[in-house]
Amino acid sequence: DQQVKQNSPSLSVQEGRISILNCDYTNSMFDYFLWYKKYPAEGPTFLISISSIKDKNEDGRFTVFLNKSAKHLSLHIVPSQPGDSAVYFCAASARGNAGGTSYGKLTFGQGTILTVHP
Amino acid sequence: DTGVSQNPRHKITKRGQNVTFRCDPISEHNRLYWYRQTLGQGPEFLTYFQNEAQLEKSRLLSDRFSAERPKGSFSTLEIQRTEQGDSAMYLCASSRDIHNEQFFGPGTRLTVL
Prior knowledge:
The structure holds two protein chains of two kinds. Chain A is mainly beta. Chain A is built from no helices and eleven strands. In chain A, about 35% of the residues are buried. Chain B is mainly beta. Chain B has no helices and eleven strands. Chain B is globular and about 40 Å long. The N and C termini of chain B lie far apart (about 35 Å). The interface of A and B includes residues 43 and 91 of A.
């Protein structure tokens, strides 16, 4: 049961343009969402998060949008840089024990490989 | 460096052997998590601790797996009688009590021959 899905395995973008990475979830108990970036042979690095009480959170070049009715979130990177090339994971957590989730446990998507070309 | 550290970074073992991994979380973090990641997938939750108490274990964690956090600081993950299917990256993460951002270590890459 894949509760968090990233349907695009890869994305290729030109330097300076916008990168948009998408994520869908099915469990309505999820109320906190995070994006991580991962380079080969390293652990995931936290990028940005959003609580379900918000629909947007911005941090520098990174903005996360949450559409609760559609159970969809997206990460926008503007402008994209070659150093942004990595695998991006979205993750979700809930604050209770209903729906097979528990507070603090993260459920991850499969990841999207972002390549930013100079 | 005050990040999460994991040792060893790589472990190659023969099927049937026991292995143990160590995780040192960020010092002020009370919660410690273990995840497993296989090729092409996102990390999958295994277990987590609040201080020294193990609060949840995934059904992925068979009886051959055991995790401890004896003094609420570092944690160990032991796999007994390893199988080839145990080959994966084992990731440790830590977080504060009231914040959900989890910070990950570099992982331990396990290869079972």
